[in-house]
Specification:
The structure is a homotetramer of 356-residue chains.
Chain A (H helix, E strand, L loop, with lengths): L30 E9 L5 E9 L8 E12 L6 H7 L1 E2 L3 E5 L3 H15 L9 E5 L14 H9 L18 E2 L2 E2 L1 E11 L2 E12 L13 H5 L17 E8 L5 H18 L8 E14 L4 E7 L5 H21 L3 E2 L5 E2 L4 H9 L4
Parallel strand pairs in A: 5-6, 11-12
Antiparallel strand pairs in A: 1-2, 2-5, 3-4, 3-12, 7-8, 9-10, 10-11, 14-15
Helix pairs in contact in A: 2-3, 5-6
């Protein structure tokens, strides 16, 4: 599904170096899996599920510290009360379409029951964006099988982007959007840490899209590639960002990283429209938190060490959004509607006009 | 399913008068519906769904201002990001078991699609408590049909309590628990308002149970009625409280009411155990908020008028919990386990020893 | 200033054992100091400052993890943005009157400058309740000297209660209130921990006052001791609670303890009136957090171990309030007004009527 | 003190039109006043107080709905618990230096007492940034007189920017910073509303500074104008933003605006460094809230109408920061240190290289 990545087109954002895959999977042990559902009959489906799976799927019994931020809450992310109360994440993070958050949530519960990986109960984290313009969302196209398929497909290494998984039918800055990922490596407290990001990008006006500050959306123009909604009517949009790091951060520090996703979003041109569910979750694998240990030894970076991780988060979110746009191919779906890809030459042309 | 209510046993808590049904349905337009699932084959089910339905089910298109409070977040309540962002509730509030929050959530989405009651999408509010001691929760006993049946059953007037709906398999203070409700009428700003509460009560140690300050749990004793968990092992428990009022409150004021549910819970003996999801939602019907009106006229009570509503909330939560305990009958379920009803004579005996 | 403590009168609340001083100072290294200002000329003053000083005043350079909860926010507590962002407390916690929070706050800044105990700047935590009924608060009676005197007076061991320090002019449940303290020892994770509480109690209606559930306020009666406001007019009131523990808790866990102060308040009869600033802060000394260490080793208790600490917090807050009431002596102040002490025999008589 | 404004240099950001003064005072009834303290003996002072005064100083008795957001909480803003609890602002908003927040806070209390403008007590909102590099902050240079002088100086119309009031000694993106303001007019619900912003800008690295996406900081270079801290050592920095609008917004909606200040900050190059107190407050004058009215009629814009106000907030914050930089003159202060002004030709040169 992937056409190109931002750096394939000669462009880049930020100043920190990416990890080897420039993906959230550069954080050791973080896996990503997609289940992509594209079909035209009996009803048009352009949807799917994406799973971000910490600790090689051992997160059910070896939690991660985590925190979140809702920049604009017109969306759903299940599991937040316990994530906030405990500062811990105890399940993969799933991304899907708005109507079927519940299905994916219960599927993760059922998986935990069948695999015997938890005692009692879990409160899984599942988030969504709305793909009802390209996908007949009212047909409820996903089954529990799709959720489990995304989990089963999860692995390390390069991550398919664009029209895959939960991002299959998404639209971003009036171009075809979807899944994007990026990573950064940064120094803190004498070591090098990795921050990885995965977004499901489905928000924004074209006129606001920026590439390293360049007005990419305006330069790309409506004449070159028409908008999916020429009448100017706003469609529901959202962006979910998952931030992962291998640094030993406490829950309050994960929440600080989650808030910095806002910076990356703003740089790319996001404003947080009313209809947008802009929910950001950050987790840190640097401390192991095996279940049911009465007392645990931990580490933490001092708050004073976090500026590089803040910068890394902002850069990785910005680039992940652009990666989603570069990767996603033109798609025609529900009711014959088409969302056009961001033209790669628009990126190259804009980049050539950089002032500095 | 209802044996008795607290006041049938000659006892009461608080000083404000209850409404005619002493139920959340005393708030005009608030309906309650239950779907109760009790079966022994193929797998044991003691579970269900309860719906609290504002505005005679017109809430989908005429929102209510709302706010929430998580006293202890070891539970799930979907829909919170938008409820917090907008201060509005746009769906019924559903209560069910922990494993099937997603099913009920998506069922409400499907209902909204099929009824055509919303444009775009909704983010329904569904909460849960864990009934896996009496019910084979890992069998995922509910279907979407049950969720819709609870909604279809919703109506005004007296509310069945105890072993009904989402409360069917619940255990509270080591007695059989479940659904309870109560209401209060109180003056503010020259008028009389109603505050109604419905709880799904599934928390607490027996030793902590109080009736108007009387140590009811200690007086009821373990010899008279054995605990479901004699070994003292704590089982997961929670309490969800829904607070409704007809007063014209703003979202920040609804949140203030939600926080006062904590007072009622503490009076009844709750401490907020680690494993408890103690999530409280309050909504106010005093302002009509029809969808898609660019500008709306509203009213608000001054904050200085709210003390009676705070008292009413605390009293109604306290009594709703006791009503759940008085109403719920002894139940035997999964693996032959039995949760015993609170003996009515324990209530009468304790009440007779009131000091004042 | 102290007449008696609750246990001197033969009564007690809760089931966990107190520490040796039954005071917040039972948490090792926690000091308390008071500066009490009582004078009649030139203008009537019944006010002061109380300092809770963690780590024997080394907290400036060896922080404590901390969290807070605002049950009702009609009050001031400075320093909250950084306390919430960092999860750390880096100064003593000061309690004083409403009008002079700023003075005490800046006095702590000046102290840090003069002592050279911090680099750059600090954001001290200072909270308040309103003593303007007994004290001519509009005279701004305190000076920076009083703030520093409270700090200089800080020490370990038994803590003066009642009409001392920040609590000098306070009124609680329509009796003379003020400073109260209590502690509990509780087991968790194989060790015994201490939870200590100090309150500045200045809230509540007499009719709501409870002693271990007994309606102490109603039993004490208005005939025996008249209320300061016979016309029933509500005066501004508040309660600030500081919770300390030696357990190795993370910031999210401190916030959990802070929320449990609500339970103790509710048991004693608090409802969180509109005009009340009910702000609770909890800190944990179990981890040392020396400033400017890039990386630190820590410990944490598992969330599953916290129930005893939750119970301890609730019990200690409840008893600290009652200790404030038992200790405070009748006081006459501004405009000749008198707030009467809770009669000790009212406590004994109520206690004698315990039902079980 | 003002050299120029961004638009005087031929540049601009955003697409919405500014109000007549392009200042927060374009919101009807909003006044601004500064007290600027610059002296070299006995100790060097480069500091002051700025007051943003809603409703022509009637805000004490006719409140404004308000909300806030802490993007990074390493700073102080007093009054937050009640602002959050009530959703109301009942005092001017003061900005000053870090060490003397308390002084200014108590000065506002004293003013309210002396003017008799409130009953009981107030909880004023005072925020700060740290000017200790140019000003001998440890000398505590301000007196209550300065706070009251800022209030007395408050008025409508154009607002002095740069080295004035609370912004006198501030440094932003390694150039001289300080006070900046801007406004936008935008349509919603069939009318035109004004959003005005005032910032006290004291944050950021030069390399991150952007002008409409252009890398202004990199283009301006360190050779042209040296940084105040050549060794690269980070100094404490912060930005406080006050957002005002005449739209009839509810408290939850004010908080939504406050969160959008983050977008403007990110566009200008802010990341939210660890040592930064990035606290944003928004208030709305569109509803009158006279004190002590039991019941009030209100209006609200629908959430769906807010996108233009969100855009206006982001644009106005971005431009207010740039206005602060354009206005502030080179300043030499404490220990002979110099913070250099942003060269106006750097702005013009960068603007000339705009790509589209």
């Amino acid at each position: 599904m992937t056409r190109a990545r931002l750096r394939d087109l000669g462009a880049a954002v930020g100043s920190l170096p990416p990890g080897p895959a420039n993906a959230i999977t550069d954080v050791s042990g973080v896996w990503v899996g997609h289940a992509t559902v594209i079909r035209d009959t009996p009803r048009v489906a352009r949807t799917g599920v994406t799973m971000v799976v910490p600790r090689e799927n051992e997160v059910w019994e070896d939690y991660c510290f985590a925190g979140w931020f809702g920049f604009n809450g017109n969306g759903e992310m299940t599991g937040l009360p316990w994530l906030e109360e405990s500062g811990m994440l105890g399940s993969p993070v799933a991304l899907t379409n708005t109507h079927q958050v519940g299905l994916v949530r219960d599927a993760l519960v059922r998986y935990s029951v069948e695999q015997g990986v938890v005692e009692g109960f879990i409160l899984p984290v599942v988030a969504e964006t709305w793909d009802g313009w390209l996908s007949d969302i009212d047909a409820f196209p996903l089954s529990e099988h799709d959720a489990l398929a995304a989990l089963a497909a999860a692995g390390s290494g390069p991550v398919p982007e664009g029209n895959v998984g939960g991002g299959t039918g998404m639209i971003c800055h009036e171009f075809k959007g979807g899944i994007g990922t990026a990573s950064r490596r940064c120094p803190a407290a004498g070591e090098t840490w990795t921050v990885g990001v995965l977004v499901q990008a489905n928000y924004g006006d074209r006129v606001d899209l920026r590439l390293d500050g360049l007005p990419l959306g305006r330069l790309a123009g409506y004449d070159r590639v028409p908008s999916p909604w020429p009448g100017g009517r706003e469609e529901p949009g959202s962006i979910v960002a998952v931030v992962a790091t291998d640094a030993p951060l406490l829950p309050v520090q994960c929440a600080r990283l989650a808030r910095r996703a806002t910076v990356g979003l703003a740089r790319a041109g996001g404003v947080g429209h009313n209809s947008s569910g802009d929910l950001f979750l950050a987790f840190a694998t640097g401390n192991h938190l095996p279940a049911h240990r009465p007392r645990r030894g931990l580490e933490m970076l001092d708050h004073e060490q976090l500026n590089p991780l803040f910068a890394a988060t902002a850069e990785a979110v910005e680039e992940a959004i652009l990666n989603a746009l570069c990767a996603a191919e033109t798609m025609t779906g529900f009711r014959g509607r088409t969302a056009h890809a961001l033209p790669p030459e628009a990126v190259s042309e804009a980049w050539a006009r950089r002032p500095g």
